[in-house]
Amino acid sequence: MIVVFLGPPGAGKGTQCKELVERYGLLHLSSGDALRRHRKEGTELGQKAQSYMDQGTLVPDDLIVAMMMDEMKNIEQGNGAILDGFPRTIGQAEELDAALAKTEAKVDVVLNLEVDDSKLEERITGRRSCPVCGAAYHITFNPPQRENQCNAGCSELTQRPDDTSEVVQNRIKTYHEQTSPLVEYYQAKGNIVNIDGNVSIDKVTQSIRVAMDEMTIA
Ligand code: AP5
């Protein structure tokens, strides 16, 4: 099963993917995480992606598609994946469909997490994560047990460099201009379900469970 997770920056895609991985045994493939890994390792792709990410604009399609095709080689036969943050343009979606068609696969479910713009900045600027285990927190909505410390005791929490108010506004603008047209693209295919992401983390999880069960049984 291939699940695409759509939603604006800070909507809660990464947060909800954890549950999807555990419940449905899907591999979590996040384009943002893959890019940050390339940056950390100093690869050519990481260097090329840096300025786009720092400004909150999209990395060019050809670079992203090549990277995600490589990531998707890790999907084991018979198991599926959740694509978090990819595709993010119509061009990327078309390339994904073409690549999947070669193996007689397709995008089975698109989860479209809808969150009002007014909530996104607070969610993003309050996000903290553990640089060691990757656990994600929010200073208000999902605080760690001890201030600024990972609950697993690994490390002090850090903030992503693109999680500033200024960059967030660019990321939201980029989402509306280049990514939101994907909603119509998938509506035409009939495999998209809208999820209200304005409510608490637990309530969103519940809605996703219901949607996934309906979409995968249908
Ligand atoms: P990426 O890393 O994908 O960032 P993003 O899409 O902007 O999404 P985020 O990771 O910021 O948010 P999220 O929805 O996962 O929210 P989270 O669960 O953490 O991309 C970064 C950059 O890489 C892009 O700007 C671009 O440059 C490049 N890039 C990536 N993919 C690309 C592509 N395909 N093409 C081209 N370029 C690409 O939640 C956020 C916070 O809110 C957390 O603190 C969480 O605890 C909290 N929270 C979550 N849910 C709730 C809730 N229901 N209520 C209250 N708080 C909540």
How is this structure best described in words?
By secondary structure, the protein is an alpha/beta fold. It has one domain: P-loop containing nucleotide triphosphate hydrolases (Rossmann fold, 3-Layer(aba) Sandwich). It contains nine helices and seven strands; from the N terminus they run E-H-E-H-H-H-E-H-E-H-E-E-H-H-E-H. The strands form two sheets. Strands 2-3-1-4-7 form a five-stranded parallel β-sheet, sandwiched between helices. Strands 5-6 form a two-stranded antiparallel ribbon. A hairpin with a 6-residue loop joins strand 5 (127-129) and strand 6. The longest helix is centred in the C-terminal third of the chain and has 17 residues, at 201-217. The two termini are 13 Å apart. The relative contact order is 0.19. The model has no long low-confidence stretch (mean pLDDT 94). The structure holds BIS(adenosine)-5'-pentaphosphate. The site of BIS(adenosine)-5'-pentaphosphate has 34 residues, from helix 1, helix 2, helix 3, helix 6 and strand 6.
